[in-house]
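Entry 14. Two folds queued back to back today. First construct below, sequence then structure tokens.
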Amino acid sequence: MGSILLDTGALVALLDISEKNHERCVSFFETFRGKIMTTEPVLTETLYLLGSSVKAQKTCIEFILKGGATLLPQSPESLSRAIMLMQKYKDIPMDFADATLVVLAEETGIDEVFTLDIRGFSAYRIHGRKAFKVWPE
């Protein structure tokens, strides 16, 4: 494994010890030896789900600042592509954060994702064709 995309659910589980998948996600994170990338919408969604606790939100931001994951911004082109994907996968449904990860996969060629959203990422396709490899198994 070289690089992997980080989704909201896995990031919340990494940071919140009360989350039922915490140990599973921490175990995967501790053994992963590649580059982890995510998007600003994933960070925003994670901060929202962690709640209004400044301590929890600070921990999340520090995770990014200390290199836990590389945060990549959206371009106008990636925003346009995200909307197209959200329309395509509206029956799942695909939220904005997931759409930005699929766009990032298309832009970088990364086809592995660290997520708890098995349903979504089992259905989403990179460039409409390639399936994601979902972690943790």
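Second construct, same run, same settings:
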Amino acid sequence: MFKFKINDTVKVTAGKDKGRTGKVIKIIPQDQKVLVEGLNVYKKHIKAKGNEAGQIVTLPRSISTASVALICPSCGKATRVGFDASQTPKVRVCHLCRQVITNETKKK
């Protein structure tokens, strides 16, 4: 089980976007990275091709999971994530308020 899920609100704790918050839009577990909406964006310059004009595109880049902290829906603070294996299925727990962290997303 991964500590972050899609649509979780996270706070960036390191890097150029330190202190900003956003929603997780993609998880890359094999690289231990997450893609956060509106954060860690870069501009890429694309050359002109034939009849198409050149352009500048804004692209989001992934952030390491070590550089983000989950914001607990119960207490509203950035926290670490623990797990409670005594419940079935195993659930995520906030380290500050000890409440279960629920994520109301539907699987495709």
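Quick look at the second one. Residues 81 and 94 are 5 Å apart (CA to CA). The chain has one domain: 9-101.
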